[in-house]
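S.,

As promised, the adenosine-5'-diphosphate run. Input:
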Amino acid sequence: MLLQADHLKKQYTAQDGSTVDALRDVSIELVAGEFVAVQGPSGCGKSTLLLTIGALLEPTAGCLNIDGENPYALSPEARARFRAMNIGFVFQQFHLVPYLDVRDNILVPSLAGESNASLDRVDELLEQFNLAERAAHPPAQLSTGERQRTAFARALLNKPRIVLADEPTGNLDRENAEIVIAHLRQFARDDGAVLLVTHDSYAADQADRSLQI
Ligand code: ADP
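Predicted complex:
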């Protein structure tokens, strides 16, 4: 099992002391090679689930195991390193650095000291995502599809085992959405696993299975 989440619960406490049950009891299992969509109405806890599985937000209760490791049992430093090496994030907003070109945006995880990636790895990603001719351009000069492909390439710099994608096609036209979904599918096929949160029925239909929360 590449990812096993058992009975995850997350309760937020607001400043006035009131509480919100964002995740009530969610269990998910992913094996290598799987591409799974998560769907549900706004506010049902999809983003909370991705952050929790992504080792960014400790659940109030429940167990998480990623490739044999419980990230919440690690020290904060070890957990950050574990996250950087094993989990790639792709968001609806691309979160690129505006003053860096495409090549350096892909290298951002290594600027943070959390990568052993070689420059060859960046060339490989530029080819894989059809960005080689855009390598020296800043995000403002890219199409939205190119921006999302740059963000996706950055997520894969360290060859993670799992990609967590939060509405990655939300800002894309159909043609570019299809390209991004094809990359997600290929990542899963190459022995990874993908968890995709989406409202886009086209994107959800491309997954191997779909979970409702
Ligand atoms: P979704 O991604 O499905 O729209 P979220 O995970 O963003 O859902 O939110 C689930 C619930 O938790 C919502 O009711 C939201 O208002 C609440 N929530 C999210 N983040 C916080 C927070 N930091 N503090 C308090 N409540 C939050």
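The helical segments are 46-53, 76-86, 102-106, 108-111, 119-128, 144-155, 174-189, 201-205. The radius of gyration is 17 Å.

- D.
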